[in-house]
Design a protein that fits this description.
- Keywords: DNA-binding, Transcription, Transcription regulation.
- By secondary structure, the chain is mostly helical.
- It folds into two domains: 55 residues, Orthogonal Bundle (Arc Repressor Mutant, subunit A); 130 residues, Orthogonal Bundle (Tetracycline Repressor, domain 2), CATH 1.10.357.10.
- 80% of the residues lie in helices and 0% in strands.
- α1 packs across α2 and α8 packs across α9.
- The termini are far apart.
């Protein structure tokens, strides 16, 4: 067993412990009321260790969510000419749902308990939505500034939020079906 492999697994476990602890404390006590020192004490690490992994509480709260939306942005930017923006979005949502774990449920509890984090969560979707607007515009031969692609992007943001936050797999799959029927109809209307 390589030393690098052991070290990397140890770092991953420590990062996971810090993240889990922070999410739980943010859900139980509130984001504003929880300090880095509280997280460190509960995770059984030094406060400096927490700040080595995450610069701030905000970074802890949003690290997984931002990584997820970055995967969508990257997928939209790297899509093949044969893939529509909605195809990419569907693949991303299904991949995110398949990779979902108890940590995602804990993250959702944290967001549910902290309205200020929910507002920031929606703001963090903005980059992916802008990329989606440009992709939809390209799909229908319009400008990203046109109202149609912007409306589709706004509807997509609502769909992403609803599907991403669904707690049950069956509910999520049904939400995906309904969402994509709705979005495809919207894009189809733009193409006329």
């Amino acid at each position: 067993m390589s030393v690098g492999g052991v070290r990397e697994r140890s770092k991953a476990r420590r990062r996971d412990a810090i993240t889990r602890t922070a999410y739980r404390l943010f859900a139980e006590r509130g984001f504003a009321a929880t300090t880095i020192a509280d997280i460190a004490a509960e995770a059984d690490v030094a406060p400096r260790t927490v700040t080595l992994y995450f610069r701030s509480k905000h970074d802890i709260a949003f690290s997984r969510f931002i990584a997820s939306t970055q995967r969508l942005t990257d997928a939209l930017r790297g899509r093949s000419p044969k893939q529509s923006a909605l195809d990419v979005l569907g693949e991303w949502l299904r991949a995110e749902a398949a990779a979902r774990s108890d940590l995602d449920d804990l993250q959702q509890r944290m967001f549910d308990a902290n309205p200020e984090l929910q507002a920031l969560q929606r703001a963090h979707l903005a980059d992916a939505i802008q990329e989606g607007t440009a992709a939809v515009a390209a799909d229908v031969g319009a400008s990203p500034e046109d109202v149609g692609p912007r409306i589709v992007a706004a509807a997509t943001m609502a769909v992403m939020y609803e599907v991403y936050c669904s707690r049950h797999d069956l509910e999520r799959e049904r939400a995906l079906e309904i969402a994509f029927a709705f979005l495809k109809a919207g894009v189809s209307a733009l193409s006329r």
